Amino acid sequence: MLHTLTLLRQLNADEFTSGEAIAKLLGISRSAVSGALHRSSDYGIELERRHGVGYKLAQPVEWLDQAIIKQHLKPNTPFCLQLVDEIDSTNRALRQECAEPGTVLAAEWQTAGKGRLGRQWIGSLGGSLLFSVVWRFSGGMTRLAGLSLALGIALTRALEKKGYQGTGLKWPNDVLCPKGKLAGILIELSGDALGPADAVIGIGLNLRLSPEERIHADHAADLSDCSGPPPERNALLAAILNELADILPRFDQDGFAPLRTEWEARHLWQGEQAKLISADGKESRGRIIGVAEDGALRLAGEDGLKVAYAGDVSLRKVNAK
Fold first, then answer.
1. pTM > 0.85: yes or no
2. 125 and 20 inside one domain
3. Catalytic residue at 316?
4. Which residue is catalytic, options 181, 214, 233, 266?
5. Pick from 319, 310, 211, 227: which is nearest to 273 by CA?
6. Is 285 a catalytic residue?
7. Counted domains in the chain
8. ∠ CA 241-246-250, rounded to 5°
9. 116 an active-site residue?
């Protein structure tokens, strides 16, 4: 079946393109064009249709472009970039393929993207960055505590360098702005406890959310909620990869400890009263006083200091619903 994204790539937001012209270009029938474009709403894409004239995008889409991304990458960046239109999950694909370390897989659209604790990750076509990276760590899984925190630093560094202000972090793996969650990180590990370990790192970043997506994605925000320029997807993806190329080998060598001070400075919930909720519903309350050298959260409560590790726990402000 003809893929809708193939046809959407033939359209722009500046002028109408006739269905006949698309059919001729792709060697398909006019009815096939109409049927495929009828499914554009499945991807959150709104089309303007004019009888006898054709179709155009209601809003422009900056498609991922290998050449443009590479133009913005630093020399000798240790990544092999792959782009796909649609996939169930970039993390799942890289795991199933046993992809080589350094592989980056970015998708225009994910049908089964997920975040931490198995939550669904909602992304829109052209309105988000959805990608995964494979990285090999020489020290094994026991030395990877704090990895998600280090990755959050890389994301906020990239956003700052592209001109976005007011972003920060929430333990253990969220990138926030004052209006909500901008990005999330999912890490899936394989390998040995003491020997080499591979991490598949999934990242989702909201560039532009529709009103419907804001309703369905709890406390979500996008880059329009930050002070900064209109997002350029290709340049921003390259900026994030540049920061990952710097922080991942440093983390492999030195761990999280050298990044601890910077992370605490970027932590938007630092000093806040909060509660930790475990998978079985148990709560621990206290004031967030920072993180340990291995990335564990430090919570000062009435009954003393509590330390929590990223896992099946969630963190909420005490006054949050």
1. yes
2. no
3. yes
4. 181
5. 319
6. no
7. 3
8. 135
9. yes
